[in-house]
Amino acid sequence: MTVRKKTIGIGLLGLGTVGTGVFNILKSQAAQIEKKTGVRLEIRKICVRSLKKHRAARASSKVITTRVDDILNDPAVDILVELIGGIHPAKEILLKAFAAGKHVVTANKALLAEEGKVIFLQAARHSRSLGFEASVCGGIPIIQAIREGLASNEISHFLGIVNGTCNSILSAMTQGSVNFETALRQAQEKGYAESDSRLDVDGIDSAHKLAVLARLAFRTEVDFRVIPVEGIRSLSALDIQYAKELGYVIKLLAIGKKTNSGLDLRVHPTMLPTDHPLANVWGVYNAVFLHADQAGDMLFYGRGAGMLPTASAVVGDMIEIAKKIHDGVSSESVFYEPPQKRKVLPIGETVSKYYLRFQVADKPGVLGRIAQTLGRNGISILSVHQKESHPTQSVPVVILTYQARESHLRAALRMIDAQKEVKEKTVVIRVEK
Amino acid sequence: MTVRKKTIGIGLLGLGTVGTGVFNILKSQAAQIEKKTGVRLEIRKICVRSLKKHRAARASSKVITTRVDDILNDPAVDILVELIGGIHPAKEILLKAFAAGKHVVTANKALLAEEGKVIFLQAARHSRSLGFEASVCGGIPIIQAIREGLASNEISHFLGIVNGTCNSILSAMTQGSVNFETALRQAQEKGYAESDSRLDVDGIDSAHKLAVLARLAFRTEVDFRVIPVEGIRSLSALDIQYAKELGYVIKLLAIGKKTNSGLDLRVHPTMLPTDHPLANVWGVYNAVFLHADQAGDMLFYGRGAGMLPTASAVVGDMIEIAKKIHDGVSSESVFYEPPQKRKVLPIGETVSKYYLRFQVADKPGVLGRIAQTLGRNGISILSVHQKESHPTQSVPVVILTYQARESHLRAALRMIDAQKEVKEKTVVIRVEK
Predict the structure, then answer these.
(1) CB pair distance less than 8 Å for A151 and B316
(2) How far is CA A334 from the centre of its chain?
(3) Whole-complex ipTM
């Protein structure tokens, strides 16, 4: 039995939370990784923005630099690990890295979502590998599962809780019955939410991950800019409470479905029955539920963020690429087949069940008119729940509908919300089964 | 960009349920697989026990044979796919296959559990790959996740629902409040249980999967014969009901823990709190919960058996090995490091919390004597629940304990069960958190 050893050179770009995690894992686990996998990962260069940055990780000053070119031009660097995030200059650096013959591992979902096309194409052109397990759901090996384990399957749809910040806020609102602002502040105090939480709370981060998953699962280019996105900011504790009474929980979901008319991709708060596998995912945990034609329904659950879970995914990718280099496999054996670009359905063309909360004057005839307007627009009612009057002048009426096209619903709601007995803009929450 | 094509020859051994599934996937998906992965999988030979067998799959009679040697001696066969199950002659065939330079994909958990040592060693000796994703949890890519995605992690423990037959029987007992015999008969009628269900119901199949998972997760040889195994045959609907009242469900778990004193591996009915991620896995579904030091807690959930889920895992392995052959990687890049053999703890040395149901005479002083005996043996009581008297002469008393060493518990129960006020053998169910 011949044993080939090889040390693979790593260039680390960024030494923030995840970068420090990667550094620490490599420092403490290098021997163990070599024993398990046959490859030795050695950090050759670490590029930081400021030279003060590297102190936390106690990296030797010999490997620290502030110039990206020191990594790009170092022939001893085989794999560039990009952990700076954002579109620029990450995009330009990755394009150069592939051209310079480096393989790349990245956790940068924004970049892959918004500029995936040129990044994947450049990797293919230069026959380099691109590892991005860490870009979606941190430590959960979902990318690998779709890429490899389920390679012979067609994936028809997936639903994901892919943002731990939002899920912990919704968990607090559901289990602690607090409102959004309180839950956000608590999450920030616990370190589960950034001080600037807009990317998370407004659903952008979830949409980035959705775009990455959809590209892979449906083998298609995805125009990130047209994905309908709603965050959790306007969600009220009242609707979470009513959902609970009806046997549902509300989760911020990244939804991907392949339909005959196009790709149904969206991010929004969604009602799920409490017995749905995703309904019991609480706190900072992430989970992706998917349906594969042969393997059936599956759920992957775990920590979606944090230093070590994300770093673990980065290192996993590094090991896979390092093994390929070690084995003398210079190119990805996966052909780059420029994926077809499928249309992303505008939200009006999507079909869903709906939870509707109307705030109406407590007068006879109001409910009848609402029901009539819904009916005329082709919306069938599943159930009606008249709620107790709150100390306002309006009474909440909750209606669950059968499946309907969103444009039809919107047309009905425009008419309904224009009625003078309807006191507030009607709340709409989509329902998945 | 150079594009290398290569067709990889497959020899299929066994054309039962899973074999037919593999045959059908390759027939319908070959072009799609080639497009996605760059390799073409072509069945060169199918070995069946009887020539009548191949008709269901409509395989060409040119590829059908009844002689294994036709596969082993065919230089056009790169990968042998073993789907006949059982120890003999599968073991001998695999050893010959590696020696003949074939890679192997197998779904045979019994073989890997009981003879894993010689099988893995032979594969390493001949630098051949061995794919066994299908041996545990069918379509769920758990083996790959542990082998690759979590490669830099240490796994400290895992809990698995790995037998769909038992889980569907327990689901019926829990949700339908039927007894074991009825639930088993129903499962057999629905096709979820074999007519000879002993391997499933008595926990042997779960123990096979436990041994395969433990070898991989803990990188150790496992002596399958010393794993403590209890099935679900003697589980009563009464205890399932009482567990429910206490906020628990009962699942047949495969448990693997690395402890300082040895490997804690066991299969037995286990009480789990209803908010445990495994508590909501119902019916024929499988799930594995594991803790990795970096990635944290994870759950993998999906269909553990059935023609297509299992065949999907087999084909996934075939693709991975085919890509290696295509890339000219002749050996597994994972070194064969003969894993250390760790001691499997005898059940008496394991530590657990316990649910105990005593059937006692309805007389004063009985409970006191039981509590005293438990205390003298170092068993602390968490709670006591006196149940309503049933139409028998004895009264059920349920006690939940704190963690205790099983040998201490058994010593206490020997004394307690010898008392004349104790009318039946005390029921013991271990509790996991």
Answers:
(1) yes
(2) 24
(3) 0.90
